[in-house]
Amino acid sequence: MATRFAPAARITASPAFRRYAFAVLLYNVLVVLWGAVVRATGSGAGCGNHWPLCNGVVVPRAAAIETLIEFTHRIMSGASLAAVVLLVIWAFRAFPPGHVLRRATLWALGFLLLEALLGAGLVLFDYVAKNVSLGRVVYLAAHLTNTQLLLASLAVVAWLASQPARPAASRSLPPSLAAALVAALIVCVSGAIAALGDTLFPATSLTAGLHQDFSSTSNLLLRLRLAHPVIALTGAAIVVFSTLRVLRAHLPKLHSHLALAVLLLTIAQLIAGAVNVALLAPVPMQIFHLLLADALWIALVFLSLAALRPAES
Hints:
Oligomer: single chain
Number of helices: 9
Distance between the termini: 42 Å
Structural class: mainly alpha
Low-confidence stretches: 1-10
Order of helices and strands: HHHHHHHHH
Radius of gyration: 21 Å
């Protein structure tokens, strides 16, 4: 039986597929940012403890602002699922069996389905609003880890779609870049926990915030918030070290450009973090801080992929 795939005609992704893959990646960054708006505004319980319905109905009417914020996030998440399903279908139609892009889109779909289940769990387990339990902290860490893996998988799809089809020697990921990825993931998780502490225990001044953090009677979230700057500085040092190694290695231009982007985003993220603390974590600054974190994470994933498959000079 004849196959619809020519031997080499459709190995390289089309420009349309490449643009769509990057669009899906960017859209999911927006979904993540709106999820942070839901948390920062205390709107996680906007639809009550109902899922997938919102306050027991499909479309809420005369809804409070918290309900609108939460419902918008659910609509955006549903659109994300549809977009990734289309990405998978497109990949399976455009590439032959065994092609790496087929596998990459399936990984992205798997992480997105798990993301949906974790999001539902937040509501059903009541890990929203003013819940300050240890369970919420652990669940949030798991949720954020999956979110970053979802973005990473979509970044892999976009990266592979942008690469020409040519044989390339197999390489292992340099240990310094592997350490940078792990460090960046840990910083993202600790940052999400710190942001939750800012939401649930807002400080009236920087001095009052420090008093909260160092108090022997402070909540676990405040103690974890205090640890975030230390974790962030340590993680930044690891990322900077790994990128400087790339810049000093005289590798192809793409590697150097990506390494420079990671380095600049790391510096910008540290500055944004300091400003966020000084301004007592206003919602717009929290969202901008998260945007930089996601941009840094994606750039670091791209740099790691470039290290695995060297680009042409």
